[in-house]
Design goal:
By secondary structure, this protein is of the alpha+beta class. It folds into two domains: 66 residues, no CATH class; 90 residues, no CATH class. The chain is 43% helix and 7% strand. The mean pLDDT is 80.
Length: 172
């Protein structure tokens, strides 16, 4: 565990934060990292009750517990969205379809389908609220599925980018 300025960063990437850190993040950016957890249950309960009472479409504040993909605050209908079928229906050529099918299998193999659902929600939310996001960077641009969802604007098929670059990981 790493301790820094009111935050404790666990090995799994979860950030356990003091209320002051979360308030500052909310004030400066309008949100906090999805992996942030509040270390004050009373403060978290008050915040969550307020957003329910005001019927705000804001991400609830989690208590000090590990955040799993299944507990991401992905609202309906995105949480149960058939992202795989949606992606496949976006394909216009056999090459696109085959690439998409292969990548979707790689995402599913790693248990990352809920991440795709959440990304679809985020991109839809950004578009609805005219929020500008980046055109893409790093190995994510080698993913055709992320291109279809709108996470980035680089067509990896056009540039013959290998999607295995995105799915590389180090063995521990």
């Amino acid at each position: 565990m790493i301790h820094l300025d009111g935050r404790t960063l666990a090995e799994d990437g979860t950030a356990l934060c003091d209320v002051a850190v979360l308030r500052e993040s909310l004030y400066k950016t309008g949100s906090w990292p999805a992996n942030a957890m509040c270390n004050d249950p009373l403060e978290a309960d008050l915040y969550n009750a307020a957003i329910r009472r005001l019927d705000l479409d804001w991400m609830p504040l989690n208590l000090s517990e590990k955040l799993e993909y299944s507990t991401w605050m992905t609202p309906e209908p995105w949480a149960s969205y058939d992202i795989q079928t949606w992606c496949l229906f976006q394909c216009e050529t056999e090459e696109q379809f085959n690439r998409c099918k292969m990548e979707l299998a790689l995402f599913a193999e790693r248990g990352l389908t809920p991440v795709l659902q959440h990304l679809k929600y985020l991109v839809d939310h950004w578009r609805q609220h005219n929020i500008v996001w980046g055109v893409g960077r790093g190995s994510s641009i080698s993913s055709y599925v992320l291109y279809l969802i709108g996470v980035h604007k680089v067509d990896p098929l056009l540039y013959d980018l290998d999607c295995t670059e995105f799915f590389k990981h180090k063995e521990t």
